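Entry for the shared binder. Reason: the reviewer on the internal report wants the predicted structure included alongside the sequence.
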Amino acid sequence: MSISIKNNEKVSKYLDSLKFAFYCLTHPMDGFWDLTHEKRGSYAAANTILFVSILVRILGLKYTGFVVQVVNWERINIFLYIASIIFPLGLFVVGNWALTTLFDGKGRLGQVYMATCYGFLPYPLIMIPTTLLSNVVTIEEAEFFSALSVVSLVWAAILIICAMGQIHEYSGGKNILFMFASIVAMLIIVFILMLFFSMISQGIGYFISLGKELLFRL
């Protein structure tokens, strides 16, 4: 009986934290403050929003009308589409958190991840109906699809900027500077990763050529 009560409490808390994401859409300043400082958010809800966002992006390939988008399935790599969300998310979260010491930020790594995922919510909310409507629009109306896609991304970006300001307790100007620095940090991380994998590739190539040379001499 006690296990059932605990499970019900977990489900109720999960649903409340997921519902709270909709409050953050229209009240980002208060919402993202309460999300972390008042513990109104949860990792389960954040993961759900991230999963739905990825799913919507993938399903958009199949169900978006041909008037709006023509898909060449021979060149489609589903893993790249998944990585197109997860990789930038990981870069932003790590880069953002890495700068908190330099900028006296208050947020923790988990809080940055949670708030960023909550900020993704406009994307699936707008793209789900937009994808369905793309099958009934004309060529002249197809431009609205692109416009709505941009709106979903801009809205999500605004929410994430507000979230970072509330989590780290920054003023408006400092938050904008911090976000710019986070983008620079993302680029630096990409450069380091490219350099690292280049060195690994060269090292592997060296040992392979060395092994071939030894086999040839033997």
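Summary line for the report: Residues 2-182 form one domain.
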